Amino acid sequence: MKITHISKWLEENTLLSPLHLGNIRVPRVELDNSTTYLDKDGSNNLTLTDAVTGTKTLAQLSAAGAGDLKANGTVPLTANWDVGAFKVTAAQLESDVAAGTAPLVVASNTAVTNLNADTVDGSHAAAFEASGAAATHSALTTGVHGVGAGTVAKTADITATKIDALTAGDDNTTLDSNTTRHGLLLKAVVPAASLMNVPGIVFGETVFTNKPVFDATNPAALGAVAPGTAVTASHRDHVHANPALDTLAAPTDNTTRDATTSLHGLVVKATDPGTANFINVVGLANADTAYTNKPLFDATVPSTQAIADAAAAGTATVSARRDHKHAMPSQATMDTASVAAIAAAGFTLADAKFITFTDPSASHTFSGFVKSHKAHETLVFGDVCFINGDEEMALAKGDAIATMPAVCICVATAGIAANASGLFMFWGFIHDDTFAFAHTGGAANQVWVSAATAGLASTTCPSGSVNVVQSIGHVLATDELFFQCDKVYLELVA
User: Fold this and answer.
1) What is each CA distance from 301 to 274, 321, 324, in whole angstroms?
2) Would residue 148 be called left, alpha or beta, if left means φ above 0 and alpha means ψ between -120 and 50 degrees?
3) Is the pLDDT confidence value at 487 over 90?
4) Are the C-beta atoms of residues 468 and 451 closer than 8 Å to each other?
5) How far apart are CA 377 and CA 385, in angstroms?
6) Nearest residue to 382 (alpha-carbon basis) of 401, 408, 419, 420
7) Can the peptide bond before residue 405 be classed as cis, meaning omega within 30 degrees of 0?
8) Which among 400, 421, 486, 415 is positioned nearest to 448, based on CA atoms?
9) Dihedrals φ, ψ of 410, to 5°?
């Protein structure tokens, strides 16, 4: 092979034949640059390589007999054409697909700048209101827009439509209210008897669900105060179990919860009376408004009971002790009062009623009818007396009518001084250890006024002239006399 330098090939930018004819051999023929060139493959097939088609054999470039894609459009595509991640730029795009097939298929939802379309979803621009504009378009104000299921009523018809005139909703939850938008109320769920469901939402949720307002849980027993964490409510008529009294915390010295005249409450704090034999109680006196510790007793001595005291309820708000004692009037006071009462009013014994006299069993004792009277002379217990001309009691003696008859016997225990007053018994029973009567029974027991000794009661009946005989009683025992002066007496004469 003959080699000819390249410089001899060119002449005025025209490829000339070599001066010496023969074969030309090169590794590959590059056109303008190293990315576009002619070469051969491993099978000695001629290949064309460029930046657009890559490396192709002549057979590949003329595959399927359709010919190459030509710029003049005379060779159409025979399959879908994917140009990859490249942009196709043209003066105009035209689709000749029939109605019913989308002329464009778009994957991105990004807005297309400067896109100017004749209709949107079949509607012209006149069918839409500008953003923020009032709905005055005739299609909405005077008629309907669209046809078939997509028909929209005019504004006046829409605003006049009652909500209960709409068709019933379905079980679609996509329009329900949630934490990001307003919406429809969810479908109701019927609870069990005595329970109630409400639409509710708790922490962490995003939509309303049917929540039970109540449940069947029994309320807890009363205890320490706490706000609680349950998201269910209590029935209005629920009842808490009361805790045991001895499980409650010890109360304080706060008196605001004590019982008063206007409310129930706690008992007042106890107060030690501070003195033996006293006791405090919880009490409320007239005009008090709250309970306080009240003394049940005090140290006041009971009053002396006076004769003829009238009954009275009393006004003291302290009690008398069970073993208390009133001071009684003296015996003399009581005797005087009794005698005065009898003297003033007298007394009458009813049928079958009687007066019982106690049997005097000790010396110088008596029981009977007595009267205080003035003594003419000194008298001792047991002296028998008559009334003298001075209306004084003097010693009776049965030896003369002048010292008779006897009417009483001195019963003053200590005796009576002359011209002094003392007690005399006119009827009754008298005991004196000095009597020494002979007690033989029958008539011998009769007692007389002694004619020998003045004032003596004797079992010896007076005899002899000028003596006066008067019975003054009967012997009951050697030292006891039933005293009763006989109104009949006898004066003996010669």
Assistant:
1) 19, 11, 9
2) left
3) yes
4) yes
5) 10
6) 408
7) yes
8) 486
9) -70, 130
Per-residue CA distances from 361 to 315, 369, 437, 479 (Å):
47, 17, 16, 9
Helix, strand, coil shares of the chain, percent, nearest 5, are: 10, 20, 65
Tokens found for residue 15:
């490829």
- Which residue from 371, 367, 357 is spatially nearest to 424, judged by alpha carbons? 371
Q: What is the DSSP string of 284-296?
A: --TT--B-EEEES
Summarize pLDDT for 37-56 with one digit per residue, the tens. 788 888 888 888 887 778 88
Q: Copy the structure tokens of residue 102.
A: 């989308």
Neighbours of 450 (CB within 10 A): 21
Does 335 have pLDDT greater than 70?
yes
* Residues with Cβ within 8 Å of residue 265, at least 6 apart in sequence: 257, 258, 259
CA 487, CA 362: separation in Å to the nearest integer?
Answer: 29
**In the block, residue with structure tokens 């010396």:** 363
